[in-house]
Amino acid sequence: MSRPGTVLGHSMPAVDDLPAPAVTVVLCDLDDFEAGRRSHGEDWARRQLARAEEIVASLVDGRADARRWFVPPDSWLVAIGGDDPAAVHRAGVALARRWHRLIGQRTDLTTAVGVSGAHAGPGRLEQAMAEAARAIDAKLVDGGDRVRRHDQLPVADPSRQPPERVEDDLGRCVRRGDADGAVAALAAWIDRMSVVDGVTPGLLRHWIGAELLYAMDVSGRRRLPDGSADWIESFGRLALDELLDMFVIHERSYLLLWLRRLFTRIVAERAAPSPGRQVLSVVEEHIKAHYAEDLRLATVAEAVYLSPHYISHLFQRELGTTFLQYRTSVRMGHARQLLSSTELPIEAVSCRVGYYSPKRFRDVFKRTFSVTPTEYRQRYGPR
Asked: Are residues 100 and 23 in the same domain?
């Protein structure tokens, strides 16, 4: 699912709302365009975009009831307006079907096309954009080359568990330094999970995230005194911004590229930590020991006798994240543990993980996990 205020991970077009009372959005996203660009080159990519642009222009330009925008790098959005919501929606579905057929006929690619419901009232264009983006997001599960209506998408059961796990295969690959094997094992498992009845993109990402945390635990070789996995350690080492990247990936080919980059780093870090990574581990240990305090970059730098600039550089170079994002990931890992294993009031949990403003804690938690602390406890808290 795209982040709020975005279409497929990109900022939404800065446009005025359509004057029509009802609006439907149709979103066309070329399938595996970036993978094709890597394989065939920039000239090929420019030709495909030009052909797709000609198609959308032929379908939309001259229509008084429609507007169109390009959403980089490979998507087009069309808003159709009118007085009758049912008629507007029918027009959107008809446009989507023609668009899908013409892309397959006139380009070297296929396309996924998402159609929103018809919305009226304030914010109707933004609501319709969000629905069309969710319809496109479904291609992560069932692939591209089809038209999807938002009202036909399955509803996820967030408490559902995957019917099989892939931890054993992942663990063996990470321990022997086989990044390609780990990606292949996870990719095959994702293929199997994608055809599970009722699975949604959000649920699939939730399952993938759990497998990634396990791989991070194997890589770090950290265990709690009772022998169980130190999930807080694992969560801290999988940077929040890195994990969030997965939530705007909606194509399997892009997901595999992301996983390959991630596992290459995991395996390389386990095999031979760089001098910079060893220095950074001292900073990480200090953050984990003092996460509940008023922990700032300057105070950490003073405590470990390093410059703030150097610490920032190490986080970016070694983990691809920032000091603040890493600190947040550690705090959120502890917050999840407290919410799921204790009955402490939310305000007390907030203080224990370093947020002295409960409102600030709730905002950060919801931005991180897409649920409030209260909702998280209702799902995963003590029974």
From this structure: yes
